[in-house]
Amino acid sequence: xxxxxxxxxxxxxxxxxxxxxxxxxxxxxxxxxxxxxxxxxxxxxxxxxxxxxxxxxxxxxxxxxxxxxxxxxxxxxxxxxxxxxxxxxxxxxxxxxxxxxxxxxxxxxxxxxxxxxxxxxxxxxxxxxxxxxxxxxxxxxxxxxxxxxxxxxxxxxxxxxxxxxxxxxxxxxxxxxxxxxxxxxxxxxxxxxxxxxxxxxxxxxxxxxxxxxxxxxxxxxxxxxxxxxxxxxxxxxxxxxxxxxxxxxxxxxxxxxxxxxxxxxxxxxxxxxxxxxxxxxxxxxxxxxxxxxxxxxxxxxxxxxxxxxxxxxxxxxxxxxxxxxxxxxxxxxxxxxxxxxxxxxxxxxxxxxxxxxxxxxxxxxxxxxxxxxxxxxxxxxxxxxxxxxxxxxxxxxxxxxxxxxxxxxxxxxxxxxxxxxxxxxxxxxxxxxxxxxxxxxxxxxxxxxxxxxxxxxxxxxxxxxxxxxxxxxxxxxxxxxxxxxxxxxxxxxxxxxxxxxxxxxxxxxxxxxxxxxx
Amino acid sequence: xxxxxxxxxxxxxxxxxxxxxxxxxxxxxxxxxxxxxxxxxxxxxxxxxxxxxxxxxxxxxxxxxxxxxxxxxxxxxxxxxxxxxxxxxxxxxxxxxxxxxxxxxxxxxxxxxxxxxxxxxxxxxxxxxxxxxxxxxxxxxxxxxxxxxxxxxxxxxxxxxxxxxxxxxxxxxxxxxxxxxxxxxxxxxxxxxxxxxxxxxxxxxxxxxxxxxxxxxxxxxxxxxxxxxxxxxxxxxxxxxxxxxxxxxxxxxxxxxxxxxxxxxxxxxxxxxxxxxxxxxxxxxxxxxxxxxxxxxxxxxxxxxxxxxxxxxxxxxxxxxxxxxxxxxxxxxxxxxxxxxxxxxxxxxxxxxxxxxxxxxxxxxxxxxxxxxxxxxxxxxxxxxxxxxxxxxxxxxxxxxxxxxxxxxxxxxxxxxxxxxxxxxxxxx
Lengths: 518, 429
What we know:
A: 13% strand; B: 18 helices; disordered N terminus
């Protein structure tokens, strides 16, 4: 039993819903108690979809449990088939139905529907949303594309002379973090490279599209959390290589292009970076205040790893913490964390993440909507980089994360929450003015926060309570602008510990400043 | 329930013919009772709601709460995992551990609700025993109470009902000869204060509210208690209070000027206040409510309205829209018709309205599309899809989150229904 305040991922059947809802011609019959229909609002409200998800729920109640819930399931599946006439049906259980063990797969088979039925086994007390999405996509691909598989041992015919190389884009789903715009961006990039995109799946794909996945020369795995399992099976079964670089950030996009060109056996196209502004914006003098900003990063594995690379290589931040809630990809995140000399935090416990942020006192948090709340409470700047999604993560404007335009978007959305350029120096200059006293809000936050008092600063961690600040030093510390005060306090205390000092004086404060530099 | 309790709670017939009720079984597009935690926890600021359930339960509450509005919520889920189910861990020991962890983190909590869910009920985890065990450990600091918010037992607002029914068991008994008024059902503090002032002016009292604003100030109940229900979905609470000897004052619900006047009148009659005096006392407020409603009459008069079942407030709201704003009713759906509580509202509905209880959402959508109503009141899963089809909607969930009861909110309540229509007229895009 685990105490959970907020969850990063829903249950696995919500992952299955994300696949069904992304596609056309698929219907999901879910054995579930009354109330589980709440999941519809994720799609209709958060994502603002204009259709109900293609899901029929049995919505059984206590009185049905004494009777025949299996019969209820069969009737729901039969009715759903007749009403929606899907090309493929998914069937499965939510957490409660799993406990009553009605076997939706067997029951659906007994109906002998004239369409393929995919029986999903998604253990709800063990697995979570992304796993459920990956498993559903894999089972669907196996069932629908499987019959077109070449005989084992048969090699792929080489591409015909003069034919353009082709690929599929795998992974984008409903309720994905910027998937809609990422697909547009990467499809455009691939086309500029001279690669045809045959099928994008599951987003907007039909079962017939899935059936012809094997026709493309290779697969581009944009979101491994969703598509890695299916792409691995396609590689094994259809001998389709997979491109696994995730093109988030300028450098990762360059690597992606290189990998695509190498897998497709083509030369690199020119002028792909014409609209890429991040490199110059980051070099322009206005950005110098970004130097060494201490960032804490948390999200799904792909977005967290990508964010760390951008933060470090492209914005000149210091990565002080990196973590993920995607246990399935823990190894990748650990490897990435090692590069930055930090210990990876692998956890789906919101309280633990909060604790880590309090300890590290970063100047910026790159996280999910959950970390946004933590950062807000601690008065730390924050930008959202990953699912779980919020209605704000579906902006009306074009706003990809991937490709060169994605990097431009990331530059803007990460830098805006921080003080604006020279503003930071002005704050130092004017800090005694009434507008800039310590409790005044940063101007760019005033509209969001109203006139409320500043959120209290994170309590200073006191690993050992033996270090005492004398009153003069405490007063001097208060003269330091609030946004670097935490860092000054931490540096001074660690300096005092190093020097074996029990009391911090004004002198210690400035000794520490000289010791650490800015 | 004791015979006398049942007698006390039963209501005189209204003399109206039984309305015909459409009942269909199919997919029910409703929230489960856990959802009511979203407003219950705000009403009782020193209470914590711990759902004992699955990841789905946690995900539901966080989604229904508009996705994480509150940074430090007073609700959480103890997620049952495979170790618990396989018997590798003793679930009661685990629960005690989780509760200990929670209370250590939140020393400000005075009442802890253990909320049952679909999985906890299917595996027959006995939360009432767990609650008394935990109460023994944590009293007097924290009282532990349990109720069910599961989807197999409850829909949406019924979670408040089972919560208040459970609380009723913990109320001290008031002296039998002490007459007092108890208003049952969550009301925003501002509305509670308005009612309190009116009752005071009328000389009705003492007045208590269930739930209270602090779990340390629980109301008392006894044979002298007269109960006015502020919400129509409190059937189990009504039974629990009747068991304690309280008498229900039957009334339509206090929505709109007329509804509020009739509701207050029920209390005034019980206190033997002469009719003329009552009318005089409420007249200024009633007229003010009518003036406020006047703004929205033009927008809503003659509009054809269709209710999907969500809150059990539908018959009462339909009555208000029809009688006070001139709206035409097509279908009034409710997840459950608690006849004991909503009969007077039902009786005030015009003939020819389809009244439906329970749901087959697909068939109901067929009827809705065929009727092409001017306004559909429905849940969040259906609203945008219907809008995309060109049908104007009002989300039902706002009706339980917003202050809508009483004279001073009558205009606000009308505005909630008028806004989507006004918006439709404004937009040229």
